[in-house]
Amino acid sequence: RLNHPNIVHTYEVGESNGIYFIAMEYLEGQALNKVVKEAVRNKQRVPPEICVRMIADALAGLGHAHELRDYDGTPLNIIHRDISPHNLFVTYDGHTKLVNFGIAKSDNSATETEVGVLKGKVAYMSPEQAMGKRLDARSDLFAMGIVLWELLTHQRLMTGDNAANTLHRLMNEPIPHVSEVQPDIDMELDRIVNLALQKDPAQRFQSAVEMREALEIWLST
Q1: How far apart are CA 35 and CA 97, in angstroms?
Q2: 3-class SS at 211?
Q3: Residue 82 annotated in active site
Q4: Pick the catalytic residue: 57, 70, 82, 200?
Q5: How far apart are CA 94 and CA 67, in angstroms?
Q6: Most exposed residue of 82, 110, 123, 165, measured as fewest CB within 10 angstroms of its CB?
């Protein structure tokens, strides 16, 4: 059902001789984590406007997923749950694609996540996801905020000796502004990233559309 220029397209899901398969759009490019790794290796910085362009485009695809409805008009309330640089794909012709909805959750999913089981990468989890609370679209926006923070700083935001230590930092330490690492960052962009990274979901952007609009306005200036 997901059909958007910024989401990798699935053409068919089927079964052949007892083996299930997914036929998907072929993409030529690199995952965003590899793009950043190559930039760091070459001691280059990805310009802020390019960082923002990639995230704004990814948010367009994410917004489509969040707002998708069933055939009868019922909101599906899809949550990706695994937003990270590994799951943002940048094509060689300059498009950003959201990939890997493997652990995505919708209201009509046939299975429920077990209590105490975390789905997703710990370093990109929202506080509510880390605590196993019921999630909504704002959890994905927090993760997208982390990706943008790391793009702008070329540093990891939440790292620890192990997953438990990383989660402890997420829950108990204040999240630094981009400007604390990159003092020359534009202050309005710093504010946008900080807003996305509010630990209280009510204090964040409330939709992918809202976050994308803020980034597009910044780009236009």
Answers
A1: 14
A2: helix
A3: yes
A4: 82
A5: 25
A6: 110
Q: Provide the token pair at 129.
A: 């996801």
Three-class DSSP category at 20 = strand
Count of helices and strands (H, E) across the chain: 7, 5
**Packed helices 137-153 and 32-41: angle between N→C axes, nearest 10 degrees:** 20
Per-residue pLDDT tens digits for 93-124: 999 999 987 666 665 554 444 444 444 578 89
Distance CA 88, CA 30 (A): 9
Gap between the Cα atoms of 137 and 103, Å rounded: 14
Residue at token pair 């990939």: 99
Q: Which amino acid is at 66?
A: H
Q: Measuring CA to CA, which residue among 98, 101, 46, 51 is closest to residue 76?
A: 101
DSSP state of 90: E
Structure tokens at 51: 């960082």
